[in-house]
C-alpha cells in the first residue's frame, strides 16, 4: 500500500537521524583511532629504542667484553690448587736415609662458609639443635679423640671460634685418619701434604739441614715444601721437584667452597730427585758422639771434626759438637746450633800449618829428614820475638825433629831458607784462602793476607799457623794432599743425584791440584810419623797418645792462639787445639782433622786432640777392616845430644 505524505516525511526524518548518528559515530571513531595510533607509535618507538640499546649492549658484551667477563666468571667459580711434588730423599753412601718425606694431610675449615650454612639451616628449621656451636663442639670432641696427644678439644674449639674467615686445624696427620674425619664432617677441608722425616734426629743435621712448608700465596692456598738451610736449601732445586696443578669449581668467588666432584688435574706433579751423599751414617754417628764426649771432657766451647777419604777426597764424616734435632722444634731456637762450622767458621790453626813449611823445604831441597839445624830458644822477626813452647837453649834438631817436636823457631829458620815466594806459592797449592768447592752453603775460604798487606813480622806468623785462618775442612784437605802422593782433590759430600726414573747422575768430577811430587809427599808423610813416636829422652813426638797399635800413623798437632775479644790481642788462655792425622801412613786410607775451640788447656784432654784421633782411628780401622801396617814405624832421632 502506497505510503501517505505523512509517512514519507517520517521515514525521511528517521533516515536523516540515522545518517547523522552514523556520521557522528564515524567521526568520533576516527578521532579515537587517531589517539590510539599515536600511543601505539610512541610505545613502538620506545620498544625499538630499548631493543637497539639492548642489542648494542649485547654486541658489547658478546664481542668487545666477552673475554674479560668470561675470565671474571671463570675466576668466580674455579680455583687453582697446587699438587705438592714428592720431595726427594737424602741418603748416605750405603743408601741409609738421612731425610725423606711421608704423605700426610692437613685439615682446615672455611669458618665464614660454615657460619653461613649453619645460619641458613637454622632459618629453615626453627628450634633446631644443629647450630654452629653444637656442630663445632661435636667435631672438636671427635677430632681430638682421633688424634690423642696431637691436639686437644679445647685447642680445636679455640680455632673454630676464631674471628677469621679461614683457619687450619691440624697438620701432619695420617691420610686414613683424615679420611675418617672428613667423611663424618664434610665441611672440613683436607689438603695433601708431605712431612719431612729425619730418622737419625741429630745425625748429620748440620750437613743435611732442614726443610719445611712455605705458604707461597695464602689467598689461593698454594703450598710446597722447601729447604731452609743445609743441603736441603742449597740443593732445593734438585730435591723439590715440580708441583702439579688441580682445578676445582667453587660455589662462589669469596668462600672458595669446593663443589664435590669438580676436581680435575691439569698438570701432574713431578717428584724430586734423591741425593746420595759420600757420608757414612755409622762413621758420622761415631764421629759426632766421640767429638761431643771429648769436647765435654776438655771443657771446650765447641769442636769440629772431619773424616776424609785419602784418595778421593770424599767426606765420610763432618761433625760439629753443637748441633740440633730437626724433629724437635725446641732445638731450632738457638741459631748457633744451626751453623755448619766445619765449612763456615775459619780459625787460626797453629802448628798444623807447619806442613806447608815442611813440604816446601823438602820440595825445594833446602833440607832432608835427617839434616840438622841449630835451633835457639827464640828468634826475632822484625820487631817480634818468637819462642818455642818450652824453654831451651840452642839445640841441634833434625828436620824431622823440628816438626815432630813442633819447634816454632826451627820452623821459621826453615821457612826463611824456603823464601817468601815459594812459601806463598805452596800455601795456594794447598788451597788456603780459597773455598774448597764442597758445595755446602755458607762455606768460607778462610783468610790468607795478600803480600801487599804483609807487615815486617808477617813472615814470622804464617809458617807457624798464626795470622791466617782456615776451616777444619781446608785443614783436613791439606793433609789429604800429602796422603795422596801430593795430589790435592777437592772434597766432596754429594756423590750423585738419582732422578725419579732411577737414573744415577754422578756429580761433576772434583778438581785436582798437584801440590808437590809423589816422592816429596811420601817423604813428608814419613817424617810426620815421628809426631806420634814414643822415644827415649827428647825423642818423643808431641802426640804419642795419637798412635794406634798395629798401624803406622802420620800426623801433626797444633795450638793456635785465639784473639781475646776484650783486648783484641792474642790471648794467653784461649786457644785452638788441632790435630790432623793420616791412617795408615804407609798405605793411606783416611785423613782425620780435629779442632777443639778454647778447651781448658790445664786438663790433659784440653791440651791435645791426639787421644781423640786415636779413638776415631781405632773405630775406622775396625769399621773398614783396614789391613795392619807392614811393620812399626822406625824410631828416628829428633834432638841430637
CATH topology title of the largest domain = Beta-lactamase
Number of domains: 2
Query: What gross morphology would you assign?
Result: elongated
Mean pLDDT: 88
Q: How much beta, percentage-wise?
A: 15-25%
- In total, how many beta strands? 24
Poorly predicted regions are 12-22, 24-31, 215-222
What CATH architecture of the largest domain do you see? 3-Layer(aba) Sandwich
**Can you say what the CATH homologous superfamily of the largest domain is?**
DD-peptidase/beta-lactamase superfamily
Kindly provide the name of the CATH class of the largest domain.
Alpha Beta
Rg, Cα atoms, Å? 43 Å
- Main sheet properties: 7 strands, mixed
Helix content: 25-40%
Number of helices: 19
Overall structural class, as computed from helix and strand content, comes to alpha+beta
